[in-house]
Specification:
374 residues, alpha/beta, Rossmann fold, 2 domains, 8-stranded mixed sheet, globular
Amino acid sequence: MHRFLRPLLLVVFCAAHSVQAMAQDSTARAEQRVADLRILDGMLAFLRTRNARDYAITTPDGIDESRYVTIGGIEQYITIRGEDRSNPVLLFLHGGPGDATNPWGYAAFRSWLKQFTVVQWDQRCAGRTLGRSGPSVAPTITIERMVNDGIELTEFLRTTLNQPKIILVGHSWGSTLGVFMAKARPDLFHAFVGTGQVADPARNYLVAYDEVLKASESRGEQRAIKELREVGRPPWTDGRGYGVQRKWANLFEGADVFLASTFGMALMAPASSPRDVTDWFEGQGVSGGRLVPQTSVLEARAIGGEFAVPVFVIQGAEDFTTPTSLAREFVRTIRAPRKGFTPIAGAGHFAVFMESDAFLRALMSHVGPLVRRR
């Protein structure tokens, strides 16, 4: 029996030695990962401190506040920043749904703070609002509830900042929310400004698909042409079609680089934490799951029609996500005391961030006279 036992013992010994070596190797790898994370955490702490200094409001009459406000029965997170408290207040409605701008907006809107007091709001189940309330409030997310939240916040800002009216700017999903807020309570707003303007949800993806395919053909992007033709024109039965269309829209607009940069700016945000970044990502899934089915069935006439406030759209000239052609049609067909459409050359869906100075000039051209006159 011993002639079989000796090889068996040898195999057992080798296996045990291998397991021990793997355990030691695993321990070494784990220790290295911990060391790497400590280095990364130190780097992020340094960058957060630097950004807190570089983006600080230092003017005597400036304002730089972050707080939770009870809105719609839950605590919701806002930031208020500007170099002069007497400047007009601008409430920015983020897109997504659920894609809060607060994690990186401290940098995106820095040049605006000389002209406006900018308020950014983590909407219901977005960003730090999600972190505070948790996803259990997701069933309360409806378009009507979001509109009421926005109006309640506007009333709070008017009182707190001693401003008779607010400038309302909405991006993408925020442009839909802004339209309904402006229609519901025109007395609260100097004007509504849309960008990445949602105009006709029923036609949006069909027009966007056709325009991305046309752009692919004009640029000779054979891979894009192949992938787009494989999924075909909408409606699509699964998420692949949306993914392909959005991928090439982002690539053609240069938004792939921009979107990656927002993650970096969020990690380096003053007083940020990994939990804040996690809540930011999670909020997009929670909010999108509730709101996209509701917004996708909206009719163009519900978004357009009659407004009792001035309405302006400042749009990337090559927006392949919420097509520029539909946004232009929206402005042409609505009725408002004043209205205007301004394209930003070379920009796409994220023009408000990627070309923020050009956007600011157009914004001042449209709303500056209204605010000064009032």
